Amino acid sequence: GESVGLHLPTLSVQEGDNSIINCAYSNSASDYFIWYKQESGKGPQFIIDIRSNMDKRQGQRVTVLLNKTVKHLSLQIAATQPGDSAVYFCAVGGSQGNLIFGKGTKLSVKP
Amino acid sequence: EPEVTQTPSHQVTQMGQEVILRCVPISNHLYFYWYRQILGQKVEFLVSFYNNEISEKSEIFDDQFSVERPDGSNFTLKIRSTKLEDSAMYFCASIGRGNQPQHFGDGTRLSIL
């Protein structure tokens, strides 16, 4: 089955810097990848997703990169703001539409 | 923007008691999910539901768990005889059709005493 892992449990950045959060997955047949942001006391909030037919997708201040060769996924946040402080999860789409989550990276933004 | 809503936000229950967690998915969504998150850990899939039946369930979703869509708006998770290890956040999610991101509610914190 699929397993999803994150490289760092915590990340601290200065306000205005760019943040990069990394994720690895195990199943080379996986074709749907998604990033969620979770603030304290809230549910996962959709940020951006990408399918395996793409290697890059951009949103507002966020970019997701997919490297299928090494089964690696990253989330880049440009000009990180204090409101970006949260736990970030990558998730991989399972065969029946369920999501398999990684453990999460806690992003702290220093003013 | 439409939201998935969950009630109650916090449920405290004695071990061995039955508990029902309620969710109102986004209107016109067709696929429904329950996940749980033990404190400080990752979100884990429990069950998916489509067309009034379970489409997939994880190992966690044993005979103590059941789901139901009793009417056109509610989606419930029942735990028949709660155990201490059932203490967790339980999240409901829904999507309108395949190839869309799942939208999550803010969860119910279940505390088993």
Element order of chain A: H for helix, E for strand: EEEEEEEEEEE
- Classify the helix fraction of chain B into a percent range: under 10%
Helix content of chain A: under 10%
Uncertain segments of chain A:
none
Distance between the termini of chain B: 36 Å
Name the helix and strand elements of chain B from N-terminus to C-terminus, one letter apiece. EEEEEEEEEEE
Strand content of chain B: over 45%
- Characterize the largest beta sheet of chain A: strand count, sense, and whether it forms a barrel: 6 strands, mixed
Structural class of chain A: mainly beta
What integer value in Å does the Rg of chain A equal? Answer: 13 Å
The class by helix and strand makeup of chain B works out as mainly beta
Question: In what range is the share of β-strand residues of chain A?
Answer: over 45%
- Give the helix tally of chain B: 0
Give the beta-strand count of chain A. Answer: 11
Largest sheet of chain B: 7 strands, mixed
Q: Which of globular, elongated, flat, extended, rod-shaped describes the shape of chain A?
A: globular
Counted beta strands of chain B = 11
Summary of the model, kept short:
The complex is a heterodimer of chains A (111) and B (113). Chain A has 111 residues and is mainly β.
Topology:
The complex is a heterodimer of chains A (111) and B (113).
Chain A: E1 4-6, E2 10-14, E3 19-25, E4 32-38, E5 45-51, E6 56-58, E7 62-67, E8 72-77, E9 86-93, E10 99-101, E11 105-110
Parallel strand pairs in A: 2-11
Antiparallel strand pairs in A: 1-3, 3-8, 4-5, 4-9, 6-7, 7-8, 9-10, 9-11
Chain B: E1 5-7, E2 10-13, E3 19-24, E4 31-37, E5 43-50, E6 53-57, E7 65-68, E8 75-79, E9 88-95, E10 103-104, E11 108-112
Parallel strand pairs in B: 2-11
Antiparallel strand pairs in B: 1-3, 3-8, 4-5, 4-9, 5-6, 7-8, 9-10, 9-11
